Amino acid sequence: MIDKLDKETLEAWLDNVSSYAEDGRVADYIPALSKRDPNELAASIYYLDGDCVKAGKVDCCFTLQSISKVLSLALALIDNGEDYVFDRVGMEPTGDPFHSIYRLEQHRPSKPLNPMINAGALAVSDMIRGGSIEEKVGRLLSFLHELTDDHTIQVNEGVADSEYETAFLNRSLLYYLKQHGVIAGDVEETLKVYTHQCSIDVNVQSLSKIGAVFANEGRDLNSGRQIIPKHLARICKTFMVTCGMYDASGSFAIKVGLPAKSGVSGGVMASLNGFGGIAVYGPALDDKGNSVVGLKLLEVLSNRYDLSIF
Ligand code: GLU
After folding, report:
1. In this predicted structure, which of 14-23, 87-96, 291-300 has the lowest mean pLDDT?
2. 194/212 same-domain check
3. Do 170 and 95 fall within a single domain?
4. What is the pTM for the complete model shown?
């Protein structure tokens, strides 16, 4: 049993690591993200008994970006089953940057190596059931509402537009995947679904609650209802360990040792079975795309409270 932190303690830890924000840079390849304040920091721990401890700018909203890849994967697995999904997307980490294109050419038949890199996540977005972009995005939003019990969660349309208009690399990946029969749908429609899922706005409390549902083996914390089947929640957490922190997943496993997923908005979601979910927001990123404050806070918490799963 790991001791619970109180608010003052979490505030103190966040304060201790806040100066690391100076070592990173806010993402600017999506214009809307470049406007964020690198010193706007927040953290939340959601325990399995429903207690939530928060610190910093807790009301600040930020977009999920790549953290959404875990949720779209869970939904695509629920919709289609493992065989369908893993016929089209692999299970192996890459060690390459998240938007890398070159490995697609090295495998025949072409297949993205895993669902946490952009090529794989784009293929997964194509698998979400629905007759229109609106229906697919709506189903993802409903899934998030169910996981967080926060029905106000919405897409940040400004970020979605900014991302869609500048998604030249993601468009290239999609056209390549379409050419090779990996995606069934229309390229622009799939890109809309993907850019909308990445632009869903959350705060640290909601994000830590999602981590807690994964830590609770996919069950709702109050009712115990299975939102994500246990074996699918386990698959998602395994991907978080092997490729959730971009091409720094190996060093993160050694230094922190938690299933986690980060996004270029500066959010990080971690999940520890039997404990709960942890979310950190700090928009300054290192050169791999991970939040520098997020990495540091998770590292100190993991060391201090012995959270590593290894
Ligand atoms: N929407 C972003 C992109 O596709 C997500 C990247 C990320 O958070 O890693 O470039």
Report:
1. 87-96
2. no
3. yes
4. 0.97
Q: Is 264 in the pocket of ligand 1 (CB under 6 A)?
A: yes
pLDDT at res. 179:
93
160 CB near ligand 1 (under 6 Å): no
Q: Which of 246, 271, 291, 296 is catalytic?
A: 246
Do 33 and 58 lie in one domain? The reply is yes
Our answer to whether residue 230 is catalytic in this structure is no
CA dihedral of 159, 293, 257, 143, whole degrees rounded to 10? -30
Per the CB < 8 A criterion, the answer to whether 216 and 73 are in contact is no
What is the Cα Rg of the chain in Å? 18
Q: Is residue 310 part of a domain?
A: no
66: annotated active-site residue? yes
Q: Which domain holds residue 113?
A: 66-198
Distance CA 310, CA 307 (A): 9
Q: Tens digits of per-residue pLDDT, 12-50?
A: 999 999 999 999 999 999 999 999 999 999 999 999 999
How is 226-241 classified by DSSP, letter by letter?
BSS-HHHHHHHHHHHH
Token reading at 115: 């669902």
pLDDT of residue 1: 66
Question: Does position 101 have pLDDT exceeding 90, yes or no?
Answer: no
Tokens at residue 256, please?
């922190």
| Ligand 1 mutation target, pool 159, 163, 192, 287, most atoms within 8 A of CB | 163
**Does the C-beta of 66 come closer than 6 Å to ligand 1?**
yes
In this structure, the answer to whether residues 209 and 144 fall within a common structural domain is: no
In this structure, are 53 and 128 located in the same domain? no
> For the chain, how many structural domains are there in total?
2
Nearest protein Cα to ligand 1, atom 6 = 66
Distance 37 CA to ligand 1 centre (A): 19
72 and 178 part of one domain:
yes
